[in-house]
Amino acid sequence: QVQLVESGGGLVQAGGSLRLSCAASGRTFSGYVMGWFRQAPGKEREFVAAISWSGTRTYYADSVKGRFTVSRDNAKNTVYLQMNSLKPEDTAVYYCAADQWIPDAELHRPLRYGKWGQGTQVTVSS
């Protein structure tokens, strides 16, 4: 069993940076694929980024490619989302998610992830 807790959200001006963290409990964290999703008011939850269990493969939504970086430290049971050059349209609640095995082609689908954190609010002002 893995439990997830996000942190690091806040209010930032456009062009600024934030780093989100997702701390996982459980001994098998290293065996999980980790994803980041976000949900803005009135919109569906959307894929942001994902990282393989080893950290060697990363995947990004086109809207954040080149601005966001996902990484993980399995020794610390933590996954990170470094967000640079933030835009007002990045404003959302950000969630981390986990599951033990997800085909690469399905990483963007929220329903493929069985474990979710409670979310952390990111607000980007213009």
Describe this structure in a few short sentences.
The protein has 126 residues and is mostly beta strands.
Number of helices: 0
Query: What's the gyration radius in Å?
Result: 13 Å
Q: What is the mean predicted local confidence, pLDDT?
A: 95
The shape, in one word, is globular
Q: What string gives the helices and strands in order?
A: EEEEEEEEEEE
Task: Give the helix proportion (percent range).
Answer: under 10%
Q: What structural class do helix, strand and pairing data support?
A: mainly beta
Percent of residues in beta strands = over 45%
Largest sheet: 7 strands, mixed
- What is the β-strand count? 11
End-to-end CA span: 40 Å
Low-pLDDT segments, ≥5 res:
none
Chain-wise SSE layout:
Elements: E1 3-7, E2 10-13, E3 18-25, E4 33-39, E5 46-51, E6 58-60, E7 68-73, E8 78-83, E9 92-99, E10 115-116, E11 120-125
Parallel strand pairs: 2-11
Antiparallel strand pairs: 1-3, 3-8, 4-5, 4-9, 5-6, 7-8, 9-10, 9-11
Fold and architecture overview:
This protein is mostly beta strands and 126 residues long. The chain has strands at 3-7, 10-13, 18-25, 33-39, 46-51, 58-60, 68-73, 78-83, 92-99, 115-116, 120-125. Strands 2, 4, 5, 6, 9, 10 and 11 form a seven-stranded mixed β-sheet that branches. It is globular. The model has no long low-confidence stretch (mean pLDDT 95).
Structural descriptors:
seven-stranded mixed sheet; 126 residues; mainly beta; single chain
